[in-house]
Amino acid sequence: MNGVHDMGGMDGFGKVEPEPNEPMFHADWESRVLAMVRAMGAAGAFNIDTSRYYRETLPPDVYLSSSYYKKWFLGLEEMLIEKGYLTREEVAAGHAMQPAKPLKHGKFDLANVERVMVRGKFARPAPAPAKFAIGDRVRAKNIHPATHTRLPRYVRGHVGVVELNHGCHVFPDTAAMERGENPQWLYTVVFEGRDLWGADGDPNSKVSIDAFEPYLDPA
Amino acid sequence: MRALETILTEKGYVEPAALDAIIEAYETKIGPHNGARVVAKAWTDPAFKQALLEDGSKAIGTLGHVSRVGDHLVVVENTPQRHNMVVCTLCSCYPWEMLGLPPVWYKAAPYRSRAVKDPRGVLADFGVTLPKKIEIRVWDSTAETRFLVLPMRPEGTEGWSEEQLAELVTRDSMIGTGFPKTPGAPS
């Protein structure tokens, strides 16, 4: 979706302001939200792509004015409601009122903690040979799906070169919408800064994205 | 936010002690010290460095003292000709196991919007000036691959041990928004 989360190349957000000696969390609730998202994901309530999609679908003004973990919280709550794990009445009351919906991997308890501290595996067996080879010129498709995609707007329509092949991975565009893992070849595609930004680009810069095969045409 | 945790607990979805344990693990087990150990080893062990650049996850998996690393970690090397910088324009993808949780600026709009269009301007915000003749390469983390920058070893560190070298490796030098510390400079 063409949301405000797709920020690459936008102007007007000001300077980057690193915080000296930044704490890991700025309030206790931030750590609880992080842990709830990790736990409910590991328990099977949603996959990582779906959780990203729910943050992206926050209204633009809410997205831009909410802190990082506030976005996580709002996305989590809405996702759990829509997937049937909670009701709006329960959220309003602050207590459980309905029977629980069974979780695919069961209750998240202490025995599951170690599992969430290692990243999941996203590589999958290849359903078909790769269409592109290292060094091939490819054009990022000019597509504008209203649903989740990982093809940022700033590369669409531009030509780049395939630099790395990461194998076949879960395809976020379908996984986020719960339409299956649909594994696709994943490539690092590198673009010249000047090709992306024209004369306003840095002449000695390159930008790469990791692009799934359905995002690319031969060029 | 507490109300949500109450509901999840009452419905039997999560055990609060398990949430505590997740937070504790993030606070104690992951962090840039993991990445620093990897970088320092690469600076002193050419065979490890080569393996690291070929397959980051596999090479780091051979180091017992570093927390377990997931798949799809790609290590990119800074050279006198090329400087690498990592961003996630769409959200906040970041090599947690190597660097810990990302800082606020990494997840915020100014960095995410400008890193791909004006990378040298972003570096200037960090007080870093990169000569124009050095190519700057920005890696936008748009999939489940994760990128770690292998910075250049500082001059004047000949004969240093891995432990000494690791002290020079900053988090930002592994994101590409800074350089390692210089020997003898105040930290």
Counted by DSSP, the helix tally of chain B is 11
Radius of gyration of chain B equals 18 Å
The assigned structural class of chain A equals alpha+beta
The spatial strand order of the largest sheet of chain A comes to 4-3-2-1-5
Strand content of chain A: 15-25%
Strand coverage percent of chain B: 5-15%
Number of strands of chain B: 4
Biggest interface reads: A-B, 86 and 78 residues
What's the arrangement of secondary structure elements?
The complex is a heterodimer of chains A (219) and B (187).
Chain A: H1 28-42, H2 48-56, H3 60-65, H4 68-82, H5 88-93, H6 113-116, E1 137-140, E2 159-169, H7 172-175, E3 184-192, H8 193-197, E4 205-212, E5 216-218
Antiparallel strand pairs in A: 1-2, 1-5, 2-3, 3-4
Chain B: H1 2-10, H2 16-28, H3 32-44, H4 46-54, H5 56-61, E1 73-77, E2 82-87, H6 96-99, H7 104-107, H8 109-114, H9 119-125, E3 135-140, E4 146-150, H10 162-166, H11 171-175
Parallel strand pairs in B: 1-4, 2-3
Helix pairs in contact in B: 3-4
Can you give a write-up of this model?
The complex is a heterodimer of chains A (219) and B (187). With 219 residues, chain A is α+β, with helices and mostly antiparallel strands. Chain A has helices at residues 28-42, 48-56, 60-65, 68-82, 88-93, 113-116, 172-175, 193-197; strands at 137-140, 159-169, 184-192, 205-212, 216-218. The termini of chain B are far apart. In chain B, 43% of the residues lie in helices and 12% in strands. Chain B is α/β, with parallel strands linked by helices. Chain B has helices spanning 2-10, 16-28, 32-44, 46-54, 56-61, 96-99, 104-107, 109-114, 119-125, 162-166, 171-175; strands at 73-77, 82-87, 135-140, 146-150. The chains are: A alpha+beta (219), B alpha/beta (187). At the A-B interface, helix 1, helix 2, helix 4, strand 2 and strand 3 of A face helix 1, helix 2, helix 7, helix 8 and helix 9 of B. Strand 4 (205-212) of chain A pairs parallel with strand 3 (135-140) of chain B.
